[in-house]
Amino acid sequence: MIGSFLRERASWIILFLFVQLLALIIGYLDTTIRFSSIVYFVFLSLVIFLVFLIVRYHQESRFFQELKQRDYNLDVTSLPEPSTPFERLVVDSIIEPIEQLKKDASTNQQLLEQEKDDLLSWIHEVKTPMTTMHLIIDRIEDQQLKQQLKNEWLRIHLLLDQQLHHKRIPFIENDLYMEEIVLEPLLFSEINALRSWCMQKRIGMDVDLTVTTVLSDAKWLSFIIRQLLTNAIKYSDVSSEIIVKSREENGQSQLQIFDNGRGIEAKDLPRIFDKGFTSTTQHQDNAATGMGLYLSKLAADMLKIDILVDSEPGGGSVFTLAFPDPDEFVKIRGM
């Protein structure tokens, strides 16, 4: 702080010292002036100047220290009260950009809200023709064509659902309703929605629930399970099996999804929940968006659910949802 203070005032400090040096030179060269008087004057001037510097340093350093301690607080009413014209100039130069930043932030927030509302409205509007398309597909007699159309319809449906939840996640706290959920109907509802895809790949589902209920939010838990099942089906081999189990370990309820797919490389495991990350070994896979696991992790974090992954290349993957204990549940329900 002292160094900055002196550097900022280096020009007029140098000017003052130059004037004192000039006085000494004149006193030395001009025999009509007593040199000792000039030395005495210069000494007093230096003492007064040093006292002035010390006083100004304490005043200005306190002012700027208060500014520094404010961090990113944009409340202009909390600015320190200026005591000098220079400090008033500093405060005025700060207030104007802060007010502009607040206006810009408010405008951007409104634009984001409007964009979210418009997109959510559009997604809901699209659901109507999607439902009509599904009814039309059900009336097609050509079973092969019918199956192909159902699969493509399902892909569009899942992408819209993913986008819908993507826009809702920033406001998830306003949407949570924690309750005791019966796992079986929730799981079978999600499995049934993906049935046509499973039939196409001849994938079987084996459900074994030791723990039958968990504490969570039904809508967001369904979304997480939907993403994990979608990934399991997408990366499973044809004519394989996906196993869904629930258990209790160390007093904690867990739901596990096993698949026999291509697995995940060890170097990719720490990154699979990153936004947009797909794979380093299957980088040409254009079907992957890198959003499913990312959104699942965001939702799981809000629900205090830990997502654990165990996988090896060629050996399939196991995704485990570890639900919060009752104490954590009480904290979430208080949101």
What does this structure look like?
By secondary structure, this protein is an alpha+beta fold. The chain is 59% helix and 13% strand. It is built from 10 helices and 7 strands. It has helices spanning 2-8, 10-29, 35-69, 85-138, 143-168, 183-193, 195-201, 218-235, 292-302, 326-333; strands at residues 178-182, 204-209, 213-217, 241-249, 252-259, 306-311, 317-322. It has a 5-stranded mixed beta sheet, with helices on one face. Strand 4 and strand 5 (252-259) form a beta hairpin. Helix 2 runs antiparallel to helix 3 (35-69) and helix 4 runs antiparallel to helix 5 (143-168).
What share of the residues lie within helices? 55-70%
Number of DSSP strands? 7
Q: Which geometry do the CA atoms define?
A: elongated
Cross-sheet strand order for the largest sheet: 2-4-5-7-6
Supply the number of helical segments: 10
Task: Annotate the secondary structure layout.
Blueprint: H1 2-8, H2 10-29, H3 35-69, H4 85-138, H5 143-168, E1 178-182, H6 183-193, H7 195-201, E2 204-209, E3 213-217, H8 218-235, E4 241-249, E5 252-259, H9 292-302, E6 306-311, E7 317-322, H10 326-333
Parallel strand pairs: 2-4
Antiparallel strand pairs: 1-3, 4-5, 5-7, 6-7
Quick structural gist:
With 335 residues, the chain is α+β, with helices and mostly antiparallel strands. Helix content is 59%, strand content 13%.
